[in-house]
TrEMBL record:
Annotated family: Belongs to the protein kinase superfamily.
Top-rank taxon, per record: Eukaryota
Residues that coordinate or bind ATP: 75
Protein name (database record): non-specific serine/threonine protein kinase
Entries under InterPro entries matching the protein: Kinase-like_dom_sf, Prot_kinase_dom, Protein_kinase_ATP_BS, Ser/Thr_kinase_AS
Amino acid sequence: GIGLLVLLGLVSLVYWREKRRLVKATTAMHLSLTRFEYRDLQYATKNFSQKLGGGGFGSVFKGALPDSTIIAVKKLESVAESQGEKQFRAEVSAIGTIQHVNLVRLLGFCSQGDKRLLVYEYMPSGSLEAHLFKRNESMILGWKVRYQIAVGIARGLAYLHENCRDCIIHCDIKPENILLDMEFCPKIADFGLAKLMGREFSRVLTTIRGTRGYLAPEWISGLEITAKADVYSYGMVLFELVSGRRNTQQSKEGKVDFFPTRAMINIVKGEDVLSILDTRLEGNADRDEVMRMCKLACWCIQDEESQRPSMGQAVQVLEGVLDVNVPLLPRSLKMFADDDEVSFISPSEFLLSLETTGTSSYDSIRSSVPYSTTIPAIRATSI
């Protein structure tokens, strides 16, 4: 009996000390970036038992601190081996100073031996990916919410590109990395990881399944990556906000339907833009806003980075401050579509086809299309 009491006393003492130490860490967290012990995070996440998601750079787990603060803990898996603890802490500290309403806030980190973990604020509404692509009727995002999400992402990226001391290129913008709070305010996750992960980042990024569709052509061609690579990825996300589906879908017949090409043809031909809207919305959307978003998306995914807008300009377009004309159809759409129904035609042939169909947009297109450009088009059978 006495032995049992002593054992219970020791267990209680260890528990009390652990809790007290974690409370101190939590208090410090509100003042600056907190350095956690690995065992702290094991305790907070119940030994990493509740997985929220994961990708090529690591897995994310839900946890709770002693003061009941809910956290998301990311276990990094591909940190550059050459990066020492001092360099890692310096990079993490720099990320911790970046705060914006549309960026997920970094609360702390762990760097112990070969273990590298990041502690973020928890986003209760999950990712944009879950709301757009998982067919749960209770999770359907209305048009107004989608539009505000588009604006929020643009503001967050504009802040990273234009308002930080050094321009921060995210490099991995996609619906999985857009998280939503209780009010469905979008917050960009994983910013700063590109520099933190070192050379390994590019290798992992270009091999992750599901990521390549958001990557700008310069990732494939090996050109220097600038902030305009994020702009391209953002444009691809805009298309998915409109359609409520992945940009690339395969039909039962094995044909590939590439939504950006379909959207571009719709705009060029002057067809009703609501006809390409997510069918679950049943046409309940502002036609001008849908058109504005589609035009901006087309502008963002231009082949040449110099032809894409800045994220600051993207914000202005969505806010109605800056107008945008119908951009050219990028050549790279053919590469991503990979569909027999998508064929390359010359601009003169394309314009002639519009002229014979009596499209009202013909004159404006004819004056804006340079004849050195190749334009991919979709036959009517696959639209």
